[in-house]
Amino acid sequence: MRSSSHAQHPLDFLVPGQILVLMALSACATAADGPAARCDANAISGPATSITPVASGLVNPWGLAFLPDGRMLVTEREGRMRIVSINGTTAGTISTPVSGVPAVHAAGQGGLLDVVLDPAFASNGRIYFAYSEAGPGGSGTAVARAVLDPQALSLSAVTPIYRQTPKVSGNGHYGARLAFGTDGKLYVSLGERQKFDPAQDTQQSLGKILRLNTDGSVPADNPFAGNKAYLPEIWSYGHRNPQGMTRHPVTGQLWTAEHGARGGDEINTPEAGKNYGWPVISYGVNYSGTKIGEGAVKAGMEQPRCYWDPSIAPGNLVFYTGGKLPAWSGNLFVTALKDTALMRLSVDGNRITGQQRIEVGKRVRDVRVGPDGWLYLLTDEAAGQILRVSVP
Ligand SMILES: [Ca+2]
Which Pfam families is this protein grouped with (predicted)? Predict the structure, then answer.
């Protein structure tokens, strides 16, 4: 029609009414739009909280597990595991390091990461922990099983049960939360090591959620068992850096929090065999502002339950089961590193219906429900603390 040598505006051939329609369509199709909603779309209010330090002097604590006697087993990212007793005080006692912890690759985001107790810990003393391990090619997330003697402060029978493949360069996006399902299987969240595409490569374990037996072997009923195109340990794939994982106390559904790119942190409910999209779909953009992948929505790829834009940098998450405060019952609490807060999300089925931001003022790495019914946080600081969140 016209020579392309003219610097013609692409909308010049449209009449004004058509331009409006086109603008509306284009607004619907931007990467920031899609069926998922922002986690903070509806602000909710709740009872005023008290946040009290109960132990101080931990160095970058990462994972916390309550022992049956009420003490806390805590990891420090540099490679130490300690037992903390609070005895109802605000100046808890921190033990010397537990012996027997293997050498870890403590660099960048890597080191000694999550720890969980075996569901039968009271009888078998077993714990499971995730860590970054150096090896040919660089480093990767690994999971080990051991027997803890809480009195002797020692680990025995330390056995690596899983190693992420392949090991790669760099010191980011290890993921590394652990959670037991109601099926007694161990779920492991693995980041994509800042390598993007491997999250979609089903022959690698970067950017995956795994489902394992407690000795590291693959359950026969895993979604891809027997399918040569997939590593059999994969539960779900297309994840970026999931550092939060828990299960719903009633339904058993797995819930995860994952760091997205700028403006794309997500809450997901990973289901067997499904693809969660990274790096093909995302609500975020590169830190430089450039686009990632193909947009926010694609057939065959799952949407998050909600996303944060701007990003909060989520750590762990947990459903409130404390029973102390009916107003929190069934709420999902998510820690925020960059946003230095605790997010209280109201949940209806699989839908996030509201968010209350509870200011902490420190980078919050982990959240757990304590045996006293209150919430306990780890702050990711060189002068790290355990904080109790209660309602007076
Ligand atoms: Ca996703």
Answer: GSDH
Render 332-370 in DSSP notation, one character per residue.
Answer: EEEEETTTTEEEEEEEETTEEEEEEEEE-SS-EEEEEE-
Structure tokens at 324: 């102390």
Residue 282, SS3 per DSSP = coil
> DSSP secondary structure string, 287-325?
TTS---TT-S--TTSPPPSEEESS---EEEEEE---SS-
- From ligand 1's centre to the CA of 47, what distance in Å? 32
Count of CB atoms within 10 A of residue 230's CB? Answer: 17
Computed over every residue of the chain, the mean pLDDT equals 92
Domains along the sequence of the chain with CATH = 44-390 (2.120.10.30)
Ligand 1 centre to CA of 322 (Å) is 30
The alpha carbon of 209 is separated from its chain's Cα centroid by a whole number of angstroms, namely 10
pTM of the model: 0.91
| Beta strands in 91-125, from DSSP E residues, in sequence order | 93-94, 112-117
Q: How many helices (H) and strands (E) does the chain have?
A: 2, 25
Find tokens 């693995």 and name the residue.
190
Answer for the pair 106, 60: CB distance below 8 angstroms, yes or no: no
pLDDT tens digits for range 327-378: 999 999 999 999 999 999 999 999 999 999 999 999 999 999 999 999 999 9
Q: How far is the CA of 239 from the centre of ligand 1 (A)?
A: 6
Q: What is the largest CA-CA distance in the chain?
A: 85
To the query of whether residue 173 is one of the catalytic residues in this protein, the response is yes
Measure 376 CA to ligand 1 centroid, in angstroms: 28
Structure tokens at 309: 């834009």
Catalytic, out of 173, 239, 248, 259: 173
> Could you report the per-residue pLDDT of 249-270, keeping only the tens digit for each?
999 999 999 999 999 999 999 9
